[in-house]
Every structure is written in C-alpha cells, then in structure tokens.
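Lab notebook: predicted structure, single chain.

Context: the supervisor wants predicted structures on file for every construct in the current expression panel, including those that have not yet been purified. This is the next one on the list. No modifications to the sequence; it matches the entry in the shared construct table.
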Amino acid sequence: MSISIAPFIRRVRRGHPRGQLRGRLRGGAALVGGLLAVAAAAGPVDAARIELRVEGSPGPFDAGDTVTVGVWMTDLGGTPAAGFQAFLEFDETQLDFVAAGYTSSPFGLPVIMPVVPDANAIDLASGIDTFDGDPPTTADARLATITFVALEFQCTPAIAFRASDPPARISDPQGDAILPLELVAFPPSACATDLDDSGDTGFGDLLVLLANWGGPCPGDFDDSGDVAFNDLLILLAAWGPCPSP
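Prediction complete. Output recorded below exactly as produced.
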C-alpha cells in the first residue's frame, strides 16, 4: 500500500546514503554577517527562524564535557508549519558526535533517518504524519537534539548552519516554503551580561568578568576573542535589572 505521509516533501534523492531531502524553495541561501538567511519576497510573517540553541549547561565547555544542541523553529507569526529541513556542519577537531534525534512533536515523521554525520555534515528533516492525523503547528518548538562531547575548550559549540542545495526550509501544509526564513546559530541572551543568572547585571557578574580577564569567556561580550576593557564597559552600561522578556 502506498501512503503519502508528508505533504511538504517534494522529492527524495534516491541513492543518497541518508535519503537527503530534495525540494524547491522560492529564494536562495546566502551567508550574510555570520547569519545564513534564505532570501525571498515578503511573506505572511516578518521572518520565521530555525535556531541552534545550547540545551542544559550554557558553557563554556571544557574537553570531555557533554554538549547538547537543540534545533528550534520559532517566529512563525501564525503561519502553520508542516515540516522542516536543515543542514549543519560541525568542527571535528572540537566536537565528537554522540547521537541525534527528533522530537516526537510537532513533527512526528522523521524523513532523514538515522541522523548520522557524513564527515562533519549533519542533515535533518521531519514533518507531520498525515496518515496519523498530525496537525500543522504555529507554535515555537524544538525539532531535534544533537549531542556531542567537547574535544577542547570552547565558549560556544562549534556547530553552524551550512549552505546547501536544497536550502534549509520550514514548509506549510501545501508544501510551500514559509518565507522569509533566517537561520540563527546561538542567538545572544536577552541579558547577556547577567553572567551569574541572578536576574540582573551586578557585582556578581563583575566578579565573574574580572576572574576571566584576558581569557576567551565568559564575559567576551564584543566577541573580540578575550575579556577586556570594552567588555567591562558593556557590563557597566547594562548595570541593573535584566529587561523583561
């Protein structure tokens, strides 16, 4: 019996070792200022997003630490989503792949399975199971989780989106791409200067910054590679309660 199980699937490339999803997308992918964005005409949302987020311990990570990365879908703006695909790459000198898996909701039907790296590349795709009656969703949701072991010290996990053809996408129930789409690796915290997670920027955070002076993190707010005077100025400028979400 033949069953159509995922309306967002356009074509699956036969013979690919991981069954990589092929598809059409109005627009293209470009790396702009560290942000891989799918460029397209304005759609019903300002910008849907696929994000990489650190799950659990926020880091920094020492060699031997477990590093867990979540793949999230956000900011759909009320547009229903029925599936996604994303293409990642990680630094094999800094991370050792352990495992990856999809969440059971909102997309209960894995398309690329099993999720295993091809060298340093990881491909992901899943969608709603129409045979099981899964509904589309408009909610922010975690779509997959990837676990690594750190091979050396790092402030942020050494994994990012990679350009691909077909590009990353979130699809609506008709199989069309939800556009525009932004791919964001590790968005900054709304209160990045709250280093001790106290809910405000204060003396405890100043102590953390000074203890890491000259090092790479935490406290390198300007991404210069080390904690220095400019980072101190940023912390002092943010002194006080964290902004409301």
